[in-house]
Amino acid sequence: MSIRLGTSKQEITPFQPVYLAGFSHRKEPFTEIKSKLYVRVFCFLDETNKNPSLLITADLIWWGSDLVSKLEKKIIEQFSIPAESIIFHATHNHSGPQTSKLFTSYLGRYSDSYIAFLEKQLLSAIEAAKQNAEEVTVQRASSTADIGVNRRKAVNGKIIMAPNPDGLVDNEVILVRFETLQQKTKALLIHYACHPTTTGNNYVSSEFPGTVLEEVEKRIGNGCIAGYLQGCCGDIRPALIKGNAFYRGEEEDVERLGKRLASNVLNCFNENHWKEVATSKLQTSTKVLHLNFEHLPSREFYDPSAFPEDLLMKEWCTIMNERFSAFEAGVPLKLHLMTFGEELSFLSMNAEMVTQYGLKLKEKYGGRIIPLPYSNGMIGYVPTAGQLSEGGYEANDSIYYFALPSPFSSSIENSINNAIDKLIRKEKREEYDGLSIHVQGRSFKCKSI
After folding, report:
1. Does residue 329 belong to any structural domain of this protein?
2. What DSSP element (H or E) covers 138?
3. Where does the Neutral/alkaline non-lysosomal ceramidase N-terminal domain start and stop, copy by copy (predicted)?
4. Does 343 map to a domain?
5. Is residue 414 domain-resident?
6. Residue 37: which residues within 8 A CB-CB, separation 6 or more?
7. In a domain, 389, yes or no
8. pLDDT tens, 258-267?
9. How far apart, in whole angstroms, are the C-alpha atoms of residue 268 and residue 315?
10. Which of 87, 133, 392, 447 could cysteine-pair with 4, CB 3.0–4.6 Å?
């Protein structure tokens, strides 16, 4: 069965100074714009030009869970596209605006005027994408890149944020190409796993993923829209290292890393080692799993007055008091599977997943399922059971920024893996125009750097 694809790209650069998201040291609105931000829309339709599904990716840190709920209603009203047919994905860019009101102000402050502008630009982009849909074939290829490194290192029995060349890292670069019947590349999706935290400057920037997309779209030409799909990079950051420590780079480092990754992408693109992907009726399915906390203290534990000098802890305690009852059932991890055929699916997750989840998913399902964290909302970091026992930023310290009441229970890793398996087994039983899904393993290795 053939599929049709419409694409568009709309600028979402803030039109006035706002606070940027992702770093607690930024105390003021941004001071300069280094590169523009964009939202890119990939609208998939069936061969009758009906039943649209959307893959939306943007140069944002995430799409806030509260914002996603609002946008889903708008899209249903304007385009009759149901929420289960939409993936809101973000490159996890730390040099763009905040899109959620659910976290502490240390992760960036929400701007109502910016969000109104973002909504307007997104709806315009969806309309434009629907208008240029055409039949496409799908191909995939893969390469490697080494711009990221694991950031969790044990020093004197404590996990600190430092380069760990022996830690897990996913170096695979996955390319998914959508080609018209005239053999023109209409869209290219690029999947790689690394935090876009090259620089911590108070500048608007699309970071290294934006540089990659700019280079790729320019080199491929013919109106190709490229999309960056962020992988499970919760514990991976750019390998900017001096001695045994990380350093924050400047704009030239953003450009250098972006062009380096773009070179890997373009070399792979031009090598013609493409594998055809047989497509069938595009299917979507979802599952929600509530993640339990290690320990949920009583409401009295969260006393703002106990931290008169610590503004972060004071704000955290205040939020905990306001939302205490909402945490009793845990927090919802939303799994969303979008399937193009037996060889290609996207699994989106509304969290910062650490790299082990992505590696396990790829290996277990032979690479046919591509993980998309930072999608359809954001709950915070999701570590492994081992990381929860070790501690460190991802497991413990991040809860104060993401306004979570406690670290997660170590049981969540098994619960997540089981939920993913159940979702995929459900999808496996579906038939795609006579083709049943068969999960087959293949040799797959991600080398460490």
Report:
1. yes
2. strand 134-144
3. 5-241
4. yes
5. yes
6. 11, 12, 13, 14, 58, 59, 60, 93, 96, 204, 206, 210
7. yes
8. 999 999 999 9
9. 48
10. 133
